[in-house]
Every structure is written in C-alpha cells, then in structure tokens.
Amino acid sequence: MQKQELSYEDSKFTLDTYWLDPISDFDEPVDQPLAIICPGGAFKFHSDREAQPIAMKFNAAGIHALVLHYQLIEDGKAVYPLALQEMATTLNWLKTQSESHHIDLSKVLLVGFSAGGHVVANFNSIMLNPDERKKIFTDDLEVEPAANILGYSVIDMTLGWPKDEEWSMKISSDIYYWQAQEHLTKHGKPTFIWQTVTDDTVPVMNSIIYAQKMDLLGIPYEMHLFGSGGHGLSLSTYVTKHPDGGDYNVYDAKWWELCVNWMKLQKILPKF
Hints:
By secondary structure, the protein is of the alpha/beta class. The chain has a single domain, classed as Alpha/Beta hydrolase fold, catalytic domain (Rossmann fold). 29% of the residues lie in helices and 21% in strands. It contains seven helices and eight strands, in the order βββαβαβααβαβαβα. The protein has helices at 52-60, 82-101, 115-127, 130-133, 165-171, 205-217, 254-265; strands at residues 2-8, 11-18, 32-38, 64-69, 103-113, 147-151, 191-196, 221-226. An eight-stranded mixed beta sheet has the order 1-2-4-3-5-6-7-8, sandwiched between helices. The mean pLDDT is 95. InterPro entries: AB_hydrolase_fold (IPR029058), BD-FAE-like_dom (IPR049492), GDXG_lipolytic_enzyme (IPR050300). It holds the Pfam family BD-FAE. This is Putative lipase esterase (Putative). GO terms for molecular function: hydrolase activity. It comes from Companilactobacillus paralimentarius DSM 13238 = JCM 10415.
C-alpha cells in the first residue's frame, strides 16, 4: 500500500492505493477494474476494518483498489459538499494513472460502508446528474463510475441516524445533502445493496428506500437483506472480527460471494 495525496482547491486529502502488478508472464499487460472504497466511521473517522481488508478482497478478485479518506467533521469543516468534490477529483485523477497502472476506466466501482455509503449514494444521486454537479464541481467529470456497492449505508439522515439533528447539521448545514434518495435520477448507476434487518445503528429502511427509488427509475440493482447481525460487519469473517467477539456472522459473510456474482452480471468481472 502506498499513500497518494490529492487536493481539491485548497483542501488536501489522501488515498491508500492498492495497485495490482502486471503479470510478467503475459505478452501484454491487462487493464483491470478499480474500486474506490469509502469506509464508515460516523464521519468522525475512517474505519480501518472497512479499508485494507476490503481493498485486499477486491485485489484478490483482480480489481485495483483505492481507499478514499474523504472529508470528516473536523476543524469546523462540514462533510458536504467537499466529500463529493474529493470523489470527483479522485475519478479525474484516475485518467492520469490509467496507462501506468493499467486501469480499465470503463469498470470503476464506488464502494461505501455506513457513513461512507452516504458519500457514494450522494455521488450517484447528485454528481452523476450534470445539471446538479456543475453547481458544486466546475470541472468536467472525465471518468464516471460504472456501478456502486453499498454496505449497511446511511441514505437518509432523517431515518434514525444520526440520532440528533445537531450532528446532521455538522455533517452539512444544507439539508439538500441529507437525503440521497431524493436526488437520484436516471443518470444513477447500477447498485449492489446489502444490510441486516437487525442493524441497530442504521435502520434497514435506508437500504429499502434507495432500492425503491432505483426501482421507480428503472436503474438496475440487487439487494440482499440478512435476517441477523449488527452494524459494521465489514467482511463478517474472522478477518475483521472485533476482539470482543462481535462483528462476525458467518451467514452475512455470504454478501461478498453474492457481490462477486453481481459484478459478473454487470460485466465488471468476466463470467467464466
């Protein structure tokens, strides 16, 4: 893993980069898909459990991975719109890296967990609509994502997370950014959604309403709601298991296998 620093205007942010090396046995290098991962952390921090373990899982599937350290609530700064501007900057930066790292720019995934899923859902809703994007990002978007993956994501900040409006106002004083589903249009990309119905932090209705809006707009999606398990499961395997014994449910770990199948359906990965 290597750190990469980027900036949007006068604001700096970092990426953790997990590049796949070309296979030297091949006559020519192969361009590979890429996943941009937004970990959760309640906009207070970026959870390591949803960073490197997830990135390496994508690497094992033949996908480059980046972990985006998007804007948090700190130093009096709000999350939005800066987090969306950082994502757009990252996507445009990929174009400068495509030849050296052999990236298939037509197969870029945005992956979000919990609070990081709110960033991804908002990007899918707001930033892929050219009319809305130009209000907060004046450059062209040179690379568009092909699809999204949302894990137990915050979608609507009025549905139970955050618990109080004061924290929502710190995330953004502009309520325009609170409800990602409200701004979703036909420009949105196919999305894989998973969560547990017993999530005691982010109510499962968040996932349901985003899938419902996608359904109304005719945007392809696949949703899996598991019958047990808490919030923040990450891989839901021993790899990301908390030492106290929580965050581990062998049944919910099936989400990754289901997600790989979905990526094949979306032609991000080959079917064979």
